[in-house]
């Protein structure tokens, strides 16, 4: 009966899509309810740093995007997820055209929409540039069926992609009456530049690169309300583009190829609040302003929060269980797992083999606040398969090979000045 209903829903969804492709505005919150599969599992595919839209005026930019679409298709056909997450830097806004900067999203979303999968994004520093804004990306995403990206906090300092979704049991008929199995939190770590703003000297206006305290307060209050409503802790996962400073501190402690399998080529120096001074100035040569402390305190004191997934550093793909203190940290970890994804796009720096991080939870695993995760590669292979359970960091796993893939007609030297066609 449930299956029949789902089938009907899918058919209704398909016919509605056919009737008005791309143009109609879908309201994700009304159309899409996330549910576990009948076997009690739920799978998420996380694409990070797709970097669509580089240099549309050269042949290599569009070629990169064609290659990136193939990565998305390969990943989605290897493991069919229940939700697709785009974890920031969807577009390289600084070398996109102003008049059609968001049009590349149709390419990014085509493989997801044609497979009738729901999707949810966080925005990254490259998604907010003089010619591009998170608001414009959200408006464009919302035209597509399955769009679940939202903006729940307003205000200049909040950023755009701050919201949550609940995942319900497979047999839930009326979400208002069901207890969710899982909460998914999406945070905007901002960065990049304010759209359409210039400093008096003509330079772009820098945007702080941490999760704002207004968002942290909303997160804690909303989480407390959900716990009260449902009478117990609900397991949760979180997504943010720019990692917190703790990821750098853990890297200094040492990433072991067998205990934290993954690529570890990047120094994680571009974490939240890097390059800012404690007083909010950027031009005084500070290396770190500490403004992500509220966010880190929140994630280490939220009962049930199992892992935080970031992107941003294309050459880091490991997970580390953050327990206790780490060098230079005023916040101590409570065992939350901090994971990077895999560079998914042919745009952006680096030639590390493209892929996506897959996350699998089951009702049984959630009882112990455990999740499984691995990287599905564009080659079809799987690397870095681990259980983020209580003994992670002490369990031995095969090391992840540091493989690269090349596209001879792509140009990995990004950020070239664009022809001046602004209006
Ligand atoms: C989308 O749905 C929400 C929740 O029901 C509602 O508040 C909002 O107005 C809707 N937006 C549009 C554009 O229809
Ligand atoms: C954006 O416009 C430029 C030229 O105006 C064009 O070459 C390019 O293909 C367009 N991009 C998309 C994704 O439509
Ligand atoms: C965690 O998972 C690993 C790999 O499956 C396993 O070897 C280990 O025993 C598990 N630890 C616990 C506490 O269940
Ligand atoms: C790659 O980009 C660099 C820097 O903009 C440029 O000099 C070079 O010609 C480009 N190569 C190709 C094949 O387009």
From TrEMBL:
Highest taxon of source: Eukaryota
A GO molecular-function descriptor: hydrolase activity, acting on ester bonds
Annotated keywords: Signal
InterPro entries given in the database record: Calcineurin-like_PHP, Metallo-depent_PP-like
Positions in coiled-coil regions: none
A GO CC term assigned to this protein in UniProt: cytoplasm
Signal peptide (from-to): 1-19
Pfam families: Metallophos
Annotated Calcineurin-like phosphoesterase domain residues: 43-314
Protein name from the UniProt record: Metallo-dependent phosphatase-like protein
Organism expressing this protein natively: Stachybotrys elegans
